[in-house]
Every structure is written in C-alpha cells, then in structure tokens.
C-alpha cells in the first residue's frame, strides 16, 4: 500500500470515473486501473463496484476511502511541518569552528547573523578539525565552519569561500622586500607549525613540498595552538609562518607576503550531517559569512586548493591517537 494508491482511490471516489480520475492524478487510465487492482489484491477487499454506473464504492470501500482521506491529510500536515522547520529562523544552533579561523571570522559573522536571524541563539565552540567532524556525526554540534573537503561520506559540505594563504616573514628574511613570496632554500627547516592542528599543518607542508615535519625546528619544539603566537615567534626571528589571509586583516607593515598565482588556498565550508534539516538557516549563514568578508577574498583569482585529509603527514599524526 502506497500514498500514491491512496490518492488514486480518493480521486476515483470524487470523480466516479476512471478517465477523469486519471486526468486529475496526471496518470494514464491503465496505470490508475492497475494500481487500484494491485491495492485491492493486497488488502483482499473490493473498494469499488465496477458494475455500477457511475463508479460506486463498496460498503467496506467507503470506510477505506475515509481512512485514506485522513491519512492524506496527516501526510500534508507532516509536509507542512517539515517545510516550516526547514524555514524556521529561531531556536538554538550549536556551531563549531576551526581555531585557525574563529578569531578572525566569528566577530564579523556574529554581527551579520544578529541582523539575519535575530531569534536564533548560537552556541559557538572552537575545535580541531577531527573533533568537529566527530561532533557533527554524534550530534554534539549542528554546523561546523571548517576547511574542506573532509572526505567523510556522512557529512555534507556547502562551500562558502576560498581563503588564500600568505607567508608571514620577519624583516631580515630574504623575501621581506619582495612583492610576492617564493620558497627559499633555507625556509623548509624554519617553518613554524601548530600543535595538534594536523589538517592545518598538512596544508602548510603541502605548500612547502614537504611530506613530514620531522626535520623542522630540530632544536626547539613549540607546543602552541595560536596563529597569533606564530606571528610573535616570527617577529622574534625564530622562523617563518604560512598563515590564512583573514588573520592579517588588522596587520600594518609588510610582514606578510602573498604567493604568486595560482595562489594556495584552503576551501572554507559550512559542514553538516546528512540529517540536518534547517536549510534556510544554512542559507542565511552562508550569505552572512560571504557578505562580511573583505572584498579581496570575493574577487576571482587563479588558485590551487590545498587538501589535508589525504596528506601522509595528517594520516601519520592522526593514527597516533586512534
């Protein structure tokens, strides 16, 4: 028994004629006849007396048709409920965001979402990529703003923008006075990484053409998690960093240098589980993020997307904690 078959018997009851009912249901008359026959054979009851003109329901058929009408009303109510839920711009939403993006995007995003969805209460949580992906699958958070693609078939990714990487240099670096940054022979051992940010580090190693961080900074190991700390280490002449462009928005001076095109970028997306239903809210969030970005990130430019989930470094580091 299907919803479509119930629609057919209700249409037959209203039209009392196979051809007219088939037209109302936008199906061929033989197709409608076959579906009625299949339904009657399944339940073992004749719903219509075909020997009478006009077509007339049997006694039991009348009861079945009445129940079918009730079921179809409830189906419509479910559909209306789902549509309303998808378009609801109120309630609570748990939002996760990677820590290399949060300090720079969230202040802009909050202001934009206050206007776009004033009745939504956002609970914002910073986290590492692996943690956010797990939280999405378990329902601990509803949406994550993170670098993609994740490679996770249980998650749905809605790309918002491409964020370029830039080189962050001290004033004595050989490229400090150049317009664009190009990798220097001594730079590979000077690259500063973030502790536990395996997806982020994997992207940096990809940009530098490295497979592992084992030979980076042999004398010191920096257990840090902040891009701002990386910047301070660079200013102290303790290495150089490759950082996301948004982290340089309030910078003055010439400490950061863009790459030549194709510019290395990370893809930033809104990521949800495959059961997430608040589609309108997701659209509002996408629009709010895009609108609050600086114009330089909205322009077209030649780029190469840096992946992280298939990096040998990422796979090696994550396997330590499984």
Structural overview:
With 322 residues, this protein is of the alpha/beta class. It folds into three domains: 3-86, Winged helix-like DNA-binding domain superfamily/Winged helix DNA-binding domain (Arc Repressor Mutant, subunit A), CATH 1.10.10.10; 90-162 and 265-301, 3-Layer(aba) Sandwich (D-Maltodextrin-Binding Protein, domain 2), CATH 3.40.190.10; 164-264, Periplasmic binding protein-like II (D-Maltodextrin-Binding Protein, domain 2), CATH 3.40.190. It is built from eleven helices and ten strands. Strands 3, 4, 5, 6, 7, 8, 9 and 10 form an eight-stranded mixed β-sheet that branches. The relative contact order is 0.14. The mean pLDDT is 86.
Give the integer mean of the pLDDT values.
86
| Proportion of beta-strand residues | 15-25%
End-to-end separation:
47 Å
Unreliable spans: none
Please give the radius of gyration in angstroms. Answer: 30 Å
**Name of the CATH superfamily of the largest domain:** Periplasmic binding protein-like II
Architecture (CATH level 2) name of the largest domain = 3-Layer(aba) Sandwich
Please report the total strand number as a whole number.
10
Number of domains: 3
Question: Which bin fits the share of residues in helices?
Answer: 40-55%
Largest sheet: 8 strands, mixed
| CATH class category label of the largest domain | Alpha Beta
The number of helices is: 11
CATH topology of the largest domain: D-Maltodextrin-Binding Protein, domain 2
> Could you say which overall geometry the principal axes of the C-alpha atoms support?
elongated
Name the helix and strand elements from N-terminus to C-terminus, one letter apiece.
HHHEEHEHEHEEHHEEEHHEH
